[in-house]
Amino acid sequence: MNRFYLPFVAIGAALVATPTLAVNPAQSSSVAVDASVDRTTAEERANTARLNAEQAARAKTDNIVYEQEVSAATQQVAHDEAEFVDETAAYEAEKARIAAEAAAERLQWEADVAACKAGDRNRCAKVEVRPAGVPQNDQ
Prior knowledge:
- The longest helix has 76 residues, at 42-117.
- The protein starts with a strand and ends in a 22-residue tail after the last helix.
- Mean pLDDT is 82; it is low at 9-16 and 30-35.
- It has 2 helices and 4 strands.
- By secondary structure, the chain is mostly helical.
């Protein structure tokens, strides 16, 4: 006696019912014969083969496009990283140049102050003398 029953198979968190054919050992030879019979027409098999070939071609094209996109993205990331490294190096070099310039100016100022205090009036800061009544322009 052939009968169908639906055992539940756990897949992840969901339960899925799958039809299963209960086989009576006395009828196992006839079931094997019935299972091997292809009940499709030649036209259906040809159509299935055509559809499978079309899907395989689309999948191959999709895979090629995907690989090209991954390659382009990888190249863009490498370019962006190299650009970042270059820009960071330029920034750090400019920062170091400005710090060195400021340090040199400070050393010159300190030397001028020391020389002024020692009596060298040529190295003293110049004081701008304004006539009385002229406003100071602090722009």
